[in-house]
Amino acid sequence: MKSIEIKNFNELIEFISRYRKSASYKFRGQSDKEWKLVPNAGRTPFKNRDDKELFKQWKRRAFAYISRENYDEWEILSIAQHYGVPTRMLDWTHNPLIATFFSCIENFDKDGALYTIKPDGFINTKTMQPFELPNNTVAFYQPLASNERIMNQFGYFSIHTKPEIELDEKTGNSTLEKIIIPASIKKEIIFALNQFGINNLTIYPDLE
């Protein structure tokens, strides 16, 4: 995987400007550069739990709080993901500055990472269900704007057929890149992002 380390916010803007010519690129921020691109259900303490059963039990209770009745399984799973249920989905965004926010907002003593990828395509949700994907693959899902968090975060998801499967150049594609954000400039970047309107209030617009 190609990797580059930036020194300041201006270098970050210069680097991500190369993606302006295509709307196909998606971005993900992680506040520790050592973390793998693995969904929550594939990490400790959830990796030994059955994520399908967790989702089933959450969904049974969640309908009391969901306003629509005709969500499909993909939409319900994406809502579960945004409310902290450990799923086999990994959050991505169309907006590189939002991904940068997640690279910097925690773990101030560790370098963060901003990932970029150009998906080969998106799952046809009419013909494929979330728990029916071929084994040992990672695919991308374009959700509907089913809640404010997904809308405000310009959300997309990778979905991993097994939660423990890492997205890398073998399971993803050769366009995957990693931008390292040093711990020493995280607070500087958060301040700059706030001036661009990227902060907790805009990313998490709901009551919770």
Folded structure, characterized:
- The protein is an alpha+beta fold and 208 residues long.
- It is 28% helix and 17% strand.
- It contains seven helices and seven strands, in the order E-H-E-H-H-E-H-E-E-H-E-E-H-H.
- The chain has helices at residues 9-16, 51-62, 73-82, 96-104, 148-152, 186-195, 200-203, and strands at 2-5, 26-30, 89-93, 112-117, 138-141, 155-160, 177-181.
- A four-stranded mixed sheet has the order 1-7-4-2. The protein has a three-stranded antiparallel sheet with strand order 3-6-5.
- Helix 4 packs across helix 6.
- The longest helix is centred in the N-terminal third of the chain and has 12 residues, at 51-62.
- The termini are far apart.
Order of the strands making up the biggest sheet: 1-7-4-2
What's the overall average pLDDT, rounded?
Answer: 88
How many strands?
7
Structural class: alpha+beta
What is the ordering of alpha helices and beta strands? EHEHHEHEEHEEHH
Main sheet, how many strands, which sense, barrel?
4 strands, mixed
Question: Count of DSSP helices?
Answer: 7
N- to C-terminal distance: 37 Å
Uncertain segments of ≥5 residues (pLDDT<50)? none
- Apparent shape: globular
Query: What fraction, in percent, of the residue positions are helical?
Result: 25-40%
**Rg (CA only):** 17 Å
Strand content: 15-25%
